Amino acid sequence: QVQLVESGGGSVQAGGSLRLSCEVPRINMRRYDIGWFRQAPGKGREGVSCITGNGWINYKESVRGRFTFSRDTSKNTVTLQMNSLNPEDSGVYYCVAANRESAQCTLRGRYDYWGQGTQVTVSS
Predict the structure, then answer these.
(1) What's the rounded Cα separation, in Å, for the pair 107 and 111?
(2) Is 42 exposed, middle or buried (0-12, 13-18, 19+ CB in 10 A)?
(3) 4-52 pLDDT, tens digit each
C-alpha cells in the first residue's frame, strides 16, 4: 500500500505564497506518476500538476507560471510551491500517485493512491 503524507497549506491573502509537501515513503519514485489535485467547495476534483518518474512535469493552465512542482528522490518527497495565489486556488489539495511509467503524466486520468488532503484558503 502506497502512503502519501501531506504537509503545508494554510490561509493566506491574495497574492501570497504557500508551500505544500508530500512524502511518499517506500516507493521508487521513478516508477510512479505523482501529482496534486484540488477540490473547491461544491466543485469536483481537478488536477493541478503532476510529474512522471522521468521528471516530466505538467501544469493546469491556470497555475502555470505561478506554481512550481519539484521532487527530491533522495527524500521521497514532492513539493508544490504556490505563488501569486488567488481565491480561486482555494480548496483541499491532495497528493496523488499512480504506479505507471508515463512519458507524460495526465491531470485527468486515474490515480490509485490519495493523501488525506490539506486545506488551502486564499482570501481576497
Answers:
(1) 9
(2) exposed
(3) 999 999 999 999 999 999 999 999 999 999 999 999 989 999 999 999 9
Instruction: Yes or no: say if 95 and 115 are a contact pair by the CB < 8 Å rule.
Output: yes
| Cell output for 25 | 515513503
Among 91, 87, 67, smallest CA distance to 79 is for: 67
Strand order in the sheet with 77-82: 5-8, 18-23, 77-82, 67-72
Residue tagged 500538476 (cell numbers): 49
With beta carbons less than 8 A apart as the criterion, state whether 97 and 28 touch. Answer: no
Residue 35 bridge partners (DSSP):
50, 96
pLDDT higher than 90, residue 1:
no
- Cβ-in-10-Å burial (0-12, 13-18, 19+) of 6 comes to buried
| Residue at grid coordinates 480548496 | 91
Among 116, 70, 66, residue whose Cα is nearest residue 94 = 116
